[in-house]
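Input.
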Amino acid sequence: MALAEFTTSEPLTLGVELELQLVSTHDFDLAPQAEDLLRVLAKHTGAWDVKPEITRSMIEIGTSIQREHSGLVAELHDLRGQLSQAARKLNIGIAGGGTHAYQHWSDQQIFPTERFHYISELYGYLAKQFTVFGQHVHVGCEDGDTALWLLHALSRYVPHFIALSASSPFVQGVDTGFDSARLNSVFAFPLSGRAPFVTTWDDFGLYFDKMTSTGVVQSMKDFYWDIRPKPEFGTIELRVCDTPLDVDKAAALACYLQAICRYLREERPFEPSEDDYLVYTFNRFQACRFGLEGEIVDPQTKQREKLRDNIVRTLARVDEHALDLRSLDASNLIRDSLRHGNDAQWLRRLRAEGEPLSSVVHKAADRWMS
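Output.
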């Protein structure tokens, strides 16, 4: 299969995808009712989309193309309302969070589509362990060369989005010690991690041809990179975020990414290089393990600093761009996250106060469904 031409998109447009948990209102374990929910939602109003995910206890929602924070928030509130109403008809709850706190992977059921059965056959038990929940953000680009430049420039900011969105401290009833344990499941796949340092769309096409000729790759969907180009949409797609516990946080993360992209495009503060990836894995691990309390190393200066401090400085640099993009409210919500902590800390506080894990999930579902 040849690589698709890169579709021209309006620069800095946004699209958000959220993978969501379906939970029973009886015991708040995962509920395999995706088909029922999709049937109820078949005639939903709005330009947003809803579709199945790899196991039957999860769904994915996707917004329409958005340009500003206010429009994105309005659409996310609309889809939340319609999803919540449909879920109540089925006596199930919908929750954010990167992992379910105590589900067991062996209990999950693969959603009956050809692609999901193929993934299950190829990856074995990893497919069911992939019952984890992330937020993906698409950013529009006018051509493939720009998309690849921006993809590599954003590599320095990947820890920001891991730490700010982290909402997966619990796995199978245990506190993992990670703020984002979800990404450990993603990293198990052989084509995960960072994209290769290719800087032109023609060269990326040559790389893609080599990969497809091996039989390892059939399409762009087979790459589980942290950031990947999406040529049919004309976007790059950031894939490292856990699904937040509420839609306002999801919108804020998307618009923070939009502001960083505008800053990078217009100011060109550095030129990305292969050396940017020398500390990439270390920085990503710090964000997963320690969240906002992690440390990162600057690939240029080789200096180590607190991730929280780096985010504060980045917010100051991109404020002018956020103002032009009408997303200062989003930047201020990110600042609130730095003060109050990420969603992983919120979940841990509930547990520390003596809440059983079923109650933690219950409150997370209440928070998402409002």
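The longest strand covers residues 14-24.
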